Amino acid sequence: RASHCRKKLSPTGGNRMDNKETTYCSVTDIFGENVFNDTVMRERLPKKTYQKLKQTIREGRDLDIETADVVAHEMKEWAIEKGATHYTHWFQPLNGVSAEKHDSFITAPMSNGKVLMSFSGKELIKGEPDASSFPSGGLRATFEARGYTAWDCTSNAFVRQDAAGATLCIPTAFCAYTGEALDQKTPLLRSMEAINEQALRLLRLLGNTSSKKVIPSVGAEQEYFLVDRDNYLKRKDLIYTGRTLFGAMPPKGQEMDDHYFGAIPERIESFMKDVNEELWKLGVPSKTQHNEVAPAQHELAPIYGECNVAVDQNHLVMETLKKVAVRHKLQCLLHEKPFAGVNGSGKHNNWSLVTDDGINLIDPGKRPHENTLFLLSLACILAAVDKHADLLRESAADIGNDHRLGGNEAPPCVISVFLGDQLADVMEQVLDKGEATHSKKGAKLQTGVKSIPDFAKDVTDRNRTSPFAFTGNKFEFRMCGSQDSIGEANVVLNTIVAEQFADVCDELEKAKDRDATIQKIIKDLMTRHQRIVFDGNGYSEEWRKEAARRGLADIRSMVDAIPALASETTVALFERFHVFTREELNSRVEIEYDQYAKEINIEAKTMVDVASKSIVPAVIRYSTRLADSINQVSSACPEADTSVQSTILKNTSKLLAKTQKALRALEKAVADADQQRGSEKRAQYFHKTVMARMDALRQPVDELEMIVDKDLWPMPSYGDLIFEV
Ligand code: ADP
Ligand code: MG
Q1: Bigger pLDDT: 698 or 366?
Q2: Does 462 contact ligand 1 (Cβ within 6 A)?
Q3: One domain for residues 243 and 121
Q4: Would you say the C-alpha torsion 115, 103, 317, 235 has a positive or negative sign?
Q5: How far is the CA of 192 from the centre of ligand 2 (A)?
Q6: Which family does it belong to (predicted)?
Q7: What's the CATH number where 119 sits?
Q8: pLDDT band at 438, cuts 50/70/90?
Q9: Which pLDDT band, with edges at 50, 70 and 90, does 495 fall under?
């Protein structure tokens, strides 16, 4: 670090209150310094090797072993200079977090007792973690343990440095011995190939001969909470489940709207500074940071990049937020709903399609043929989202998100598309008259196709309530959960749009009059799928009714969303583009049900543990204190009025009895879960029966928290957690 950090402030010279020495780093110097990126490759690899590797990256070919050996050697030398002793294949199995298995570079000791540091091409390209310890949803039996990780050379290797040492991390895909995908990356890379192929076909049919590649571009805005780490460590529910399972609302919540975009406190700012520096070194272009709606809630957004890199980088963002928080005696909560009654956290997935020569298919653009391309792309996206709304909804399903979606703080569970005034008007004209003749306002764009309307640029207003909003030159899918990988959502987006492009291309290839056919397709698609467009308030009850009238699905929970992952429509879609096989989809269904049941089981058991070991004893202590007071006051002064103590004692005892009853009922529900056969039934049981009993236990406990002496209550309150940072 030191080499690039220029200025140091003396302990007294800075503007910081804690008198700690602050170092200021030049961002351009540190950016990407821990990444084996193009600059490093060009510098360190022999020219021939460099060219071969670049060709492999560009064309997606296999890397020959001789080239891999040279790359591996140089990568190791570079990593060792950065302090690395180990390397790891870094991958994203289906348990939601990233995984790694560290090996050191050392060779077997030689006869002189010394070792060498080595790293071969084979070790770079292929790893072999034990696949049986990762979820496979029945694709692998535990005795069939073979799984492989394979280098994704389109995502750069990097060195992760921290107090524990430095490690060379190699982004990899993770597959079973038999080739099935066991991770997020494999299908993502397949879906990127599908959209690339179909979008290029479309471009060619519209006369584009220059673009060579179409890349889905993604920018993920990450929301998170920060709480004081000492407070966090006193909350078993946060430790075990990532969210609070008990907790009464503090007198002040977020009703004053004073946190959103508010000034960032110094403690948090210094945390953000460290996060940014770590991310910049890892080549993550962290750009925007601000406070979010809820107290203690914040957001970080990087500059968008290639889809698979953006997905990897979002994992790095999540890892880094957590790691750096601990250094600042904070805890980063990535859960979608850490606090009931307070806004939850999501991840906005900004998505567009950009060619290697810089054409964004979703940008209205300036030149006529691009506008045709835009309107056609838009019509295709509307159709794709409408056709596969349930699948898109599923891609954002995770357990924490169930508490957030549809709760007047996040998009509803109904998928719809927001277009904004001008595009909606254009679309209406197409629907009414077969063609649009004017645009509402703003600078005109001319499409050059007679019946395709002119319209103005950058006129979309914001609509925070829409799950899928057009925002100028991209779509923003806002349903994703804050702790979930955005991999799945992008697999779905890429593939459903690829399918629609493919269908349109098939039609255009047969067409005699291509221009006329394009106009007809735009009109047909907009007509058939207009029900998916909605520009009003997505949080309102009227919209739920209207959506039902339009026949749009309103899938309220993860367990109800899962079946869409292996419906016949979905299987046909994914098999057509070789993104998933039926077996892979079925395995993912199994994994999701299984994870759902397991996580709710942990939540329920944590509630039982905390209630019986901490809350009930605390309430008994409090009751005893009240009873003692009544006895002592009465014996000291028989005429004294002890009615206050008596009333509180009566109330407390009643709630205590209610708590104990709910506790037993929850225990029983958890024990009975073993009788549920089959993963779907089990998940549904946890969703319906167990969760209802969890709610029933929480209710009297939260009431008790408002009554019992604060010094007796066994854990920090919501107020302590969200206002003490
Ligand atoms: P907004 O205010 O509309 O949310 P921002 O400029 O803050 O827009 O961008 C939010 C995220 O979207 C950022 O990560 C940004 O890099 C990303 N983004 C911007 N343009 C595109 C695009 N064309 N495709 C994908 N992501 C984009
Ligand atoms: Mg945004």
Answers
A1: 698
A2: no
A3: no
A4: negative
A5: 23
A6: Belongs to the glutamine synthetase family.
A7: 3.10.20.70
A8: low
A9: very high
Instruction: Find the 350 Cα to ligand 1 centroid distance in Å.
Output: 6
360-392 residues labelled b (16+ CB within 10 A) or e (exposed): bbbbbbeeeebbbbbbbbbbbbbbbbbbbbbbb
Q: Are residues 4 and 109 in the same domain?
A: no
| Any atom of ligand 1 within 6 Å of the Cβ of 349 | no
- Ligand 1 atom nearest 304 alpha carbon: 16
Per the CB < 8 A criterion, the answer to whether 448 and 369 are in contact is: yes
Asked whether residue 66 falls in the same domain as residue 208, the answer is: no
Cα distances from 85 to residues 69, 115, 662, in angstroms, run: 18, 13, 53
Q: How buried is residue 674: exposed, middle or buried, by Cβ count under 10 Å (0-12/13-18/19+)? A: exposed
Question: Ligand 1 atom 17: the closest Cα is on which residue?
Answer: 219
Residue 239 and residue 127 in one domain: no
In a domain, 261, yes or no: no
Strands (E), 210-257: 214-228
Q: In the chain, what is the straight-line distance between the N-terminal and C-terminal CA atoms, in Å? A: 28
The neighbour count for residue 252, using CB atoms within 10 Å, is 12
183, 201, 234 - which closes a domain? 183
pLDDT of 554 over the 70 cut: yes
Strand partners, 228: 330
Comparing CA positions, the residue from 589, 391, 582 lying closest to residue 495 is 391
Predicted TM-score (pTM) of this structure: 0.92
Q: Do 353 and 362 touch, CB atoms closer than 8 A?
A: yes
- pLDDT digits 0-9 by tens, 627-648: 999 999 999 999 999 999 999 9
Ligand 1 centroid to residue 303 C-alpha, Å: 7
Domain, as residue range, for 510: 192-247+272-359+376-415+430-439+457-467+478-580
The number of the ligand 1 atom at minimal distance from the alpha carbon of 462 is: 3
How far, in Å, are 368, 586, 632 from residue 648 at the CA level?
Answer: 75, 55, 16
Residue 151 CA to ligand 1 centre (angstroms): 28
Residue whose Cα lies nearest atom 8 of ligand 1: it is 471
301 CB less than 6 Å from ligand 1? yes
How far away, in angstroms, is 427 Cα from ligand 1 center? Answer: 24
Residues 407 and 281 in one domain: yes
Q: Indicate the residue among 151, 166, 183 that finishes a domain.
A: 183
